[in-house]
Amino acid sequence: MVNRYPANFFTNLQSAIAHRRSLIHRNLSQCEADRRRLHERQARLTLAVVAPPPAPPPSRQRTRSDLERQAVLIELSSDAIFECAPNGRILRWNRGAERIYGWSAEEAVGSLVNRLLGADGAPLALLAHGDYWNGELVHRCKDGRRLVVDSRQLCVAGTIASGPVVFSVNRDITATRALQEEYRLTLAREREARTQAEEANRSKDEFLAILSHELRTPLSPIIGWTQLLRRGTLSGDDTQRALEIIERNARLQKQLIEDLLDASRMIAARFHCQMQPVALQTLIAPALASVGPQAEARGIALRADFDDDLPEISADPTRLAQVVWNLLTNAVKFTPAGGSIAISLVRRGARIRLIVSDTGCGIAPDLLPHVFERFRQGDSRPSTGLGLGLFIVRHIVEAHGGRVWAESDGPGRGATFIVELPERTDGS
Predict the structure, then answer these.
(1) Record: fold of 67-172
(2) CA–CA separation, 94 vs 75, rounded Å?
(3) Where are the domains of the chain?
(4) Range with lowest mean pLDDT among 85-89, 94-98, 118-122, 353-357
(5) Where are the alpha helices (H) located in 83-162, listed in sequence order?
(6) Which H or E run includes 420?
(7) Which CATH number applies to 184-266: 3.40.1000.10, 1.10.287.130, 3.30.70.120, 3.10.20.30?
């Protein structure tokens, strides 16, 4: 039998089988290691899912140092902080409370908060466990001052054996509230001043319009009749009539200018009176004679009534005659045809009253307090006049130590002007 395999065939075959076995053994070892690692990982995941969560660490108890630190913070606060029992008795009182209210801790602790501070007890009574209240209160200090405080109160349970306590933090806001009130009043005053300035400007504009009209009105007839006189075509009667018209309008314009000058002097405090003994009734007749023709032309009746034995007064006769004339002229302007005007002098104790009443158009209630003001006229203003007459009357009367006021039941009910002047004494 012939051996067809090489001499080293079996040797090589055995070597190859041994190498293959080595590789298989190595792979089996690696698979076993992987299997063990996978098993351990699955076990850890299972424990993580099934096992309960770890117990939380025990809560930290407040140490004595923590409590001391909080007590120091409370004492250092600039706010008034105090602690009250449910019945309102004060248990703790910090230095801020001593500074704000004036009571020491020894004086405050043990007192009832409502009796000590005089505060409203409603917040304390309404607070229940866990409730919080915030608002403004008025507290009383030791020296009697009243403080407005921003109060924050919190009711906490279980602090003392007798039940909950109320912690109160109070901040003094008195100065803040005072500044806010002052700011509010300042704004109100500014709004009022602005309103008055706007009203004064409107009145001034209206006055200037009236002034220009009133100064121009007398000039038209003066210029017209002067041109006619210059032509020489008027008859004797027409010439006399022209001169009367020119004189009347010139006097009217003179009176307007004098009123303006008097008002200017009064505003600039350059108005003076030359005092001397005067019998007031002697000034009435000339004034009645002055307005008589105008009243008669309109069918207005004039009546005068004087008390007997009226004493003299200390006055400037020229200025006081101006008062009488202005009041009578004003009454004639505002009294319709067929009406009546009454002037009287009566004694009231140590004072004498000059009363001028008419049955004219009256004065509206909203205008009554302002009739003596500058640049003020009612809607029923006649076609002539600047409205300065009553303003001048008031200043002249006050310069004589008297007073003047107006009374009226309303539009269409007439008006009464009353001037009250003191009697003349030996030293006046």
Answers:
(1) Beta-Lactamase (3.30.450)
(2) 5
(3) 67-172, 184-266, 272-422
(4) 118-122
(5) 95-101, 105-108, 113-117, 122-126
(6) strand 415-422
(7) 1.10.287.130
Distance CA 349, CA 229 (A): 58
Fold equal for 67-172 and 184-266: no
Q: Which helix (H) or strand (E) holds 344?
A: strand 340-348
d(CA 39, CA 94): 67
Check: CB of residue 400 under 8 Å from CB of residue 351: no
Residue 136's SS3 state is strand
Q: What is the CA radius of gyration of the chain?
A: 53
Q: Which amino acid is at 121?
A: G
Q: How many CB atoms lie within 10 A of CB 280?
A: 22
Closest CA to 81 of 172, 189, 209: 172
Candidate from 26-35, 124-133, 326-335, 357-366 with smallest mean pLDDT: 124-133
SS3 (DSSP) at 69: helix
pLDDT (tens digit per residue) in 198-231: 887 887 777 777 777 777 777 888 888 888 888 8
In angstroms, the CA 362 to CA 350 distance is 30
343: confidence class by pLDDT, cuts 50, 70, 90: very high
Q: In the predicted model, is pLDDT for residue 398 greater than 80?
A: yes
pLDDT at position 330: 87
Contact, 335 vs 360, CB < 8 A?
Answer: yes
Degrees (nearest 5) of the Cα angle 104, 106, 109?
100
Mean pLDDT estimate for the chain: 79
Architecture per CATH, domain 272-422, reads as: 2-Layer Sandwich (3.30)
In the chain, the percentage of residues whose pLDDT exceeds 70 is 76
Nearest-angstrom CA–CA distance, 125 and 123: 5
Distance CA 329, CA 298 (A): 13
End-to-end CA distance of the chain: 184
pLDDT-derived band at 24, boundaries 50, 70, 90: low
3-class DSSP state of 93: strand
